[in-house]
Structure formats: C-alpha cells, structure tokens
Amino acid sequence: MQNTLDACVDKMNKSINALKDELNGIRTGRASASIFDKVRVNYYDNPSPLSQVATISIPEARMIVIQPWEKELITEIEKAILKADLGLNPSNDGKIIRISIPPLTAERRKELVKQAKQIAETSRVAIRNIRRDGNEDLKKQQKDGTISEDELKKSEDLLQKSTDKFIGDINKIMDDKEKEIMEG
After folding, report:
1. Separation in Å, CA 6 to CA 49, 134, 159
2. pLDDT of residue 167 exceeding 70
3. Residue 73: exposed, middle, or buried by beta-carbon count in 10 A (0-12, 13-18, 19+)?
4. Considering Cα of 16, then 22, then 26, then 28, what sign does the dihedral take?
C-alpha cells in the first residue's frame, strides 16, 4: 500500500519536473540560457548540448552571448540554433556569437501562452493517469487480501490529496509562465 503511494508520488514529481523543463524551452521576451537546453551542436560528429561546447552568458535583458570553447565550432553552433527553430538570428564576429532577443508581438505571446497551456494540460492528464493506475493497484491489493477495505479507502484518499496538490502545482507553474510570457 505505502509502496504504491510512494511510487505514485515519485512519478507525479517526475511529471512536474518534465513540465518545468518543457516550459523552460518556451521563449519569453527576455533573454534566458534555458531556451538553448534542447539545442544540439554537431561536435566531431557527435550531437552535444550547446552548454557543453560553449559558455552562454546574458550581458543584457535582451542579449545572449555564446562563446564557443573552440573557434571552429562557431558555424556549427549557428547552424544548430537556426535548426532548433527558436525564432532567433545568431550573428558572429569570428570569436563569439551574439543573439539579440526581439520583443514578442501580442499575437506571438498569445500563441506561446496557448502552447504552454497545452503542455500544462498534458501534465495534468499524466498526473490523473498516475492516480488511476495507483487506484487500480490498490484495488488489486485489496482483492488479493494484502490490504483491508479501510486501508484501501484511506490510501485512495491520500492518493487523491496528492493528485490535488500536484494539479495545484501545475496550475501555479502555468500561471507564473503565462505572466512571464505576457510581461516579457
């Protein structure tokens, strides 16, 4: 019984972390190194995360500077950024890459919020599916005689409370992201 609850809470935590990672990839009007988390650079025929082949810094609110550890990587980094389709135009001076973050249009902000809401809804569904699987497992344990009917009810209630907490966390994360996108 407790193993089932712990496993469900663990899975729910992983869903929240996945949501945060995915929302970090959505560009806001401000410069953020996290928008490059999914960018992979061809480094000696090996796709490597951008953060492992260059230093990413943010000298101003709307400027990102990328300094490759090896000068030869500049063109590969530029290709990777363009291929990632982030809506950014990198420019280089032979040593570093500068990316100016253009302000988002009102229409683009609304699209990004809509995209973020879809991601959040997918996370809510994942949380509910974890609850459903946990409840099925608990009912199976009760049927097998390993837990009593009272323990089943108590466990289902605890699982529902955890589900409600995680759904609330998703809503808060989504609200914060929406504010970040709209104010950008």
Report:
1. 33, 10, 9
2. yes
3. buried
4. positive
Q: Is the Cβ–Cβ distance between 6 and 159 less than 8 Å?
A: no
As given in the structure block, the two tokens for residue 45 are: 């025929």
Q: In sequence order, what E strands does the chain have?
A: 40-42, 47-49, 54-60, 63-68, 90-92, 97-100
Within a 13 Å sphere around the CA of 14, how many CA atoms are in the beta-carbon half?
8
Exposed/middle/buried for residue 85 (C-beta within 10 Å: 0-12, 13-18, 19+) = exposed
**Tokens at residue 35, please?**
């928008």
| φ/ψ of residue 34, rounded to 5 | -65, -15
Residue-wise pLDDT for 26-85, tens only, equals 767 677 777 788 888 888 888 888 888 889 888 887 888 989 988 888 888 888 888 887
Q: Are 160 and 127 in contact (CB under 8 A)?
A: no
Q: CB-based contacts of 102: which residues, under 8 Å, 6+ apart? A: 62, 87
